[in-house]
Specification:
With about 170 residues, the chain is an all-alpha fold. Helix 3 packs antiparallel against helix 7. It is globular. Keywords: Membrane, Transmembrane, Transmembrane helix.
Length: about 170
């Protein structure tokens, strides 16, 4: 249980650490910290996916942490969306005409990779809920698909948690 909590909390806070690195003063330190952050991001995402898949406890705990992670990431996704929107609107400036689309694609990839990583907890909870009899096949398929789309992933996470809340699996 401790490893589940530790890695889930790490995943909840990890994107905000990246934003905090933007405010590190100096010239050399931020670039080194940024590349170290990128390397550690791959490790954190990979460890969380493995952690979700190897969890031996109850499905409702996975569903709870999935929902909590997704709720914690709402401000991060909103920040990326708003910054991307500003760059989209700033494309009237000739210098940003070519840079803005690249940054918007990078923001989209970052956001979707975060969504996929957090969805590992939910998909595993759905599979366990299906095998435990708490979810029907149709519900499991629909909820699983919803976990891979923006906004609906949060709705799906809440539904899975509510359905598995009272069940032991």
């Amino acid at each position: 249980m401790r490893s589940l909590k530790f890695f889930a909390v790490t995943l909840m806070l990890w994107p905000y650490l990246g934003i905090a690195l933007l405010y590190v003063p100096g010239d050399v330190v931020p670039s080194i910290a940024f590349f170290l952050y990128l390397l550690l991001t791959a490790a954190v995402y990979g460890i969380n996916i493995i952690n979700a898949c190897r969890w031996k406890g109850e499905a409702r705990q996975l569903a709870f942490w999935n929902m909590l992670i997704k709720l914690a990431h709402i401000p991060f996704h909103l920040i990326l969306f708003l910054v991307g929107l500003v760059f989209l609107l700033a494309m009237v400036v000739p210098a940003l005409l070519f840079v803005s689309p690249i940054l918007i694609v990078i923001f989209s990839v970052i956001s979707y990779l975060l969504l996929l990583t957090s969805s590992a907890y939910g998909v595993n909870a759905i599979v366990r809920g299906k095998t435990g009899g708490a979810l029907s096949t149709k519900a499991a398929i629909v909820l699983g698909i919803l976990h891979f789309l923006f906004v609906t992933d949060l709705i799906s996470a809440i539904i899975v948690f509510v359905k598995l809340r009272g069940r032991r699996s």
